[in-house]
Amino acid sequence: MATNNFGQKLRSLRLQRGLSQSDLAEPGLSAGYISLLENGKRPPTSEVILRIAARLDVSPEVLSSAQESATVSGPQDAEADDAVRISLLRGDLAFAEGDFPAACDLFATALEDAARSVVSRMAALRRLARACEQLGDLDKASGLYRQWLDLHQEQPRPRRVGQWLTCASSLVRCMVERGRLEEAVVFGAEAVERARAVGVAGVPPAVELASSVQYAGYCRGEQDRTDIDARALEEAAAGFFSREARVEAYVSAARGAEEHGDQERARALLVEALRTRTAEAWAVSGDRIAVSVLAQAAYRSRPLPARLSCEVRPAVQRLQAHGTALEAALGAAGAAGVLLGSGESEEAQRMADEALSAIPAPYRLSRAQAALTNGRAFRALGRYEQAQDCYEQASTQMTGMGLDWLGATVLFELAELREQMGDAAGALSAYRTASKTVRAGRGG
Fold first, then answer.
1. Do residues 356 and 367 make contact, with C-beta atoms less than 8 angstroms apart?
2. Inter-CA distances, 92 with 96, 327, 375, Å
3. pLDDT per residue over 122-136, tens digit each?
4. What is the DSSP letter of 406?
């Protein structure tokens, strides 16, 4: 199979300059012939390369180097491409069946075999990163997401808008879970600005990304670090319980891309809309995003409309029925925080307890927040001894991650609880520890 580097480069340069094939045509160089060149159906002569380079105002070497790199692949290359596709399909099947170790092995094999194809390499990287997330290997997942984003950035005309957003959001999520909050805020804020610049800030992965950035700032005690509108994010996320709302978010972004003349991005966004409409896995993704964003709001003690508690339970049930075990566990932890905020303490405690038993150990922040939700629920139910144990567990985990401000906040709540229990000495000790933690976090 012949590659078409020259045709791809010609088309890319022409579109960058806003030219049609007719605009590029001249006597002896018809629009039809240019179409044949771009589609790889005619090889360019040296004279044609010189004439087109002059019309595009580029050095002839830009086009000739593309022509020289276009080679005919032999049977071994074709077999390698087939091997990559087979490994990816087998990995997808293993992932769908919940066999994540096997999926990782297959995606890793595909990545090794895809060294000569950027497209195949990116497909393998993205899948392998997601499988690593499911296994709790967040450091490896972060590295793979970064590799994908670096390759995407290197493309002359970056595409795959939905995939870029998903990878950027996933990378920030991994950073937050590992307590790398400063890095999450810096990288995430840049990604949020890019999403705004290209008009996709309202689509589901972008909403999750912005919410994670805001949450990371909150965990550091820097609530005003970004100009993200928290209430707007929560309202958008609440709409994602509805598949129609998610589809409309992509369609609306596609309209904006068309208005700015970016047909390529518009097509990519409409593909995301179609996949959201037809694929069950994408319905689960919307539930996961909605629950996650609303849970982060609940952790920040932001009051949420009472109607949302009615939406949260069905969403968690869908995650349990159609999502992975990890998605179901994280969904339950998030739902527990939302339900607690609406006064449903007994149900919140049950869900938080179930989540704690199911969330993998590497998801340190989610486990700490689930323990805190458990403690708050026990406290609301008057079960103070159990609440005290959960508060101590949460504060230890948070300070162990270097989240001194968050750990101190939990210790202050623990001190209040001990006062309720009549333990004045214990309350004083907790207040002192909280103050020391705050000072340590500030370097004082």
1. yes
2. 6, 17, 39
3. 999 999 999 999 999
4. H
Which of 441, 152, 96 is closest to 281 using CA atoms? 96
Paired with 26 in beta bridges are 29
Calpha distance 70→174 (Å, rounded): 39
160 neighbors 152 (Cβ within 8 angstroms):
yes
Give, in degrees to the nearest 5, the angle at Cα 70 between 68 and 72.
125
Q: How far does Cα 226 stand from its chain's mean position?
A: 18
Centre a 10 Å sphere on the Cβ of residue 444 and count the other Cβ atoms it contains. Answer: 7
* Beta-bridge partner residues of 72: 2
Q: Tell me the pLDDT tens digit for each residue of 420-433.
A: 999 999 999 999 99
What are residue 50's phi and psi, to 5 degrees? -65, -45
Phi, psi angles (nearest 5°) of residue 373: -60, -40
How far is the C-alpha of 6 from the C-alpha of 3, rounded, in Å? Answer: 9
**Tens digits of per-residue pLDDT, 37-48?**
888 777 787 778
pLDDT digit string, tens, across residues 243-288: 999 999 999 999 998 888 888 888 888 888 888 888 777 778 899 9
SS3 211: helix
Could you read off the pLDDT of 366-383 as tens digits, one per residue?
999 999 999 999 999 999
Residue 172 in tokens: 């920030």
Does 95 have pLDDT greater than 60? yes
Which residue carries 């912005």 as its tokens? 210
What one-character-per-residue DSSP string does 42-75 give? SPPPHHHHHHHHHHHTS-HHHHHHHHHT--B--H
Say if residue 425 is exposed, middle or buried (CB neighbours under 10 Å; 0-12, 13-18, 19+): exposed
Buried b (16+ CB within 10 A) or exposed e, 207-227: bbbbbbbbbbbbbbbeeebbe
Phi, psi of 23 (to 5 degrees): -65, -35
Q: Going along 63-113, which residue ranges are E strands?
A: none
Quote the distance between the C-alpha of residue 322 and its chain's center.
Answer: 19
Beta bridge partners of 2: 72
Q: Name the 3-class secondary structure at 423.
A: coil
